[in-house]
């Protein structure tokens, strides 16, 4: 199959990044021009030796110096810091940047890539959550495609192909429910990080897995869907689907519903973001319908898992509030993973920040970053006992 596509990956050593490189192994026409990582430098070196990118970013300057010595025999430019991330995102000749870094750290390199007219294969939901009004406007201005990589948003994107987007009645966003579906607040009072990291269906990084357990991840996806598909927040409904076979659905004005089904395998949405509008073969992810004896759906418990309710509020009120929601969650999850915060205090910390940090409509990038800092400081001050990462 003749296919040529030049890409860079921001966050190449994480779950999405490594699976993107699996696809690049399958299709030699995918040329990797740039890689980046925050940690796991040993894996980054192996990736660099295999794919021979032109530029690699190691975020930490000291680690970057050590990495540069380790790959001195290769014709690769090694950069560091936020500027280095943007350099990878904007690498000359690349058509698409896969934004697979976790958190608001993905925002600035994504904005720079859009201005450099790179298409965005978006796995960093925080980019749209914190600055969706800026990102979507810039994509339109520079003629850039914003292609979703999250399995749920890819499913919606696939269900919209060949249909008029303004005919959407509802988006039905499915959720696995995480490891604690059906639990009460009393049963969640003493949850440990080890328990919260045991996702029933997906293998993901620690931050996303904890967010799945609190339903924060689904809340972020609700806000992301608002911007990706140009719908009102009230048109997005979350359904708990424990089997993770139906990845999401679109109900149209005539009440017809189109769903995208598949095994819990992130390679499909990653590959589709790179091959769109074409579909390429993939090995090993066949869905066996004879084994799908039951597909169940339920309403989420937004009283026990009230972070999802907070996300709907943030998405509806807009402005800086989604950024505050996200920043507070990033800080709270960090504290939880370090034993400084209880599981049920994660949504409590988010709510505190949402009440404390002032909102503003149509914020600038600088104001978004300041709101993120203020939200984190609020959580650290209230719960972290002077903890800083």
TrEMBL record:
GO terms for biological process: isopentenyl diphosphate biosynthetic process, methylerythritol 4-phosphate pathway involved in terpenoid biosynthetic process. NADPH binds at residues 13-16, 40, 124, 126, 205. The keyword Magnesium applies. Pathway: Isoprenoid biosynthesis; isopentenyl diphosphate biosynthesis via DXP pathway; isopentenyl diphosphate from 1-deoxy-D-xylulose 5-phosphate: step 1/6. Mn(2+) binds at residues 150, 152, 221. It comes from Candidatus Avimonoglobus intestinipullorum. The gene is dxr. Residues 146-229 form the 1-deoxy-D-xylulose 5-phosphate reductoisomerase C-terminal domain. 1-deoxy-D-xylulose 5-phosphate binds at residues 125, 151-152, 176, 199, 212, 217-218, 221. One of its GO terms (molecular function) is manganese ion binding. InterPro entries: DXP_reductoisomerase (IPR003821), DXP_reductoisomerase_C (IPR013644), DXP_reductoisomerase_N (IPR013512), DXPR_C (IPR026877), DXPR_C_sf (IPR036169), NAD(P)-bd_dom_sf (IPR036291). Catalyzes the NADPH-dependent rearrangement and reduction of 1-deoxy-D-xylulose-5-phosphate (DXP) to 2-C-methyl-D-erythritol 4-phosphate (MEP). Its cofactor is Mg(2+); Mn(2+). It catalyses: 2-C-methyl-D-erythritol 4-phosphate + NADP(+) = 1-deoxy-D-xylulose 5-phosphate + NADPH + H(+). This is 1-deoxy-D-xylulose 5-phosphate reductoisomerase. It holds the Pfam family DXPR_C.
């Amino acid at each position: 199959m003749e296919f040529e596509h030049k890409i860079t990956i921001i966050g190449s050593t994480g779950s999405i990044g490594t699976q993107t490189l699996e696809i690049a192994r399958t299709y030699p026409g995918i040329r990797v021009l740039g890689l980046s990582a925050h940690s796991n430098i040993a894996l980054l070196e192996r990736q660099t030796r295999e794919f021979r990118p032109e530029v690699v970013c190691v975020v930490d300057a000291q680690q970057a110096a050590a990495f540069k010595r380790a790959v001195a025999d290769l014709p690769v430019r090694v950069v560091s810091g936020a500027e280095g991330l943007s350099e990878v995102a904007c690498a000359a000749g690349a058509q698409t940047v896969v934004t697979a870094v976790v958190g608001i750290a993905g925002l600035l390199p994504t904005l720079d890539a859009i201005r450099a007219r790179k298409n965005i294969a978006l796995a960093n939901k925080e980019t749209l959550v914190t600055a969706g009004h800026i990102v979507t406007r810039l994509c339109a201005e520079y003629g850039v495609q914003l292609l979703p990589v999250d399995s749920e948003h890819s499913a919606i994107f696939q269900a919209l192909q060949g249909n008029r987007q303004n005919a959407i009645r509802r988006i039905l966003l499915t959720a696995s429910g995480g490891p604690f579906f059906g639990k009460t607040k009393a049963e969640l009072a003493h949850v440990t990080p080890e328990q919260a990291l045991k996702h029933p269906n997906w293998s993901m990084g620690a931050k996303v897995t904890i967010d799945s357990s609190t339903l924060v991840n689904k809340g972020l996806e609700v806000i992301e869907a608002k911007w990706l598909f140009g719908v009102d927040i009230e048109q997005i409904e979350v359904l708990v689907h424990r089997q993770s076979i139906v990845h999401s659905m679109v109900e149209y004005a005539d009440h017809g519903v189109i769903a995208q089904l598949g095994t819990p395998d992130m390679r499909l949405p990653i590959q589709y973001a790179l091959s769109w509008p074409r579909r390429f073969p993939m090995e090993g992810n066949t869905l066996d319908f004879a084994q799908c004896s039951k597909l169940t759906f339920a309403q989420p418990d937004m009283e026990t898992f009230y972070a999802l309710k907070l996300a709907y509020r943030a998405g509806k009120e807009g402005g800086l509030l989604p950024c505050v929601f996200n920043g507070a969650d990033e800080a709270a999850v960090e504290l939880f993973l370090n034993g400084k915060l209880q599981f049920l205090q994660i949504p409590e910390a988010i709510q505190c920040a949402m009440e404390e940090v002032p909102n503003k409509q149509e914020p600038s990038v600088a104001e978004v970053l300041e709101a993120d800092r203020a939200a984190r400081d609020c959580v650290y001050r209230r719960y972290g006992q002077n903890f800083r990462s």
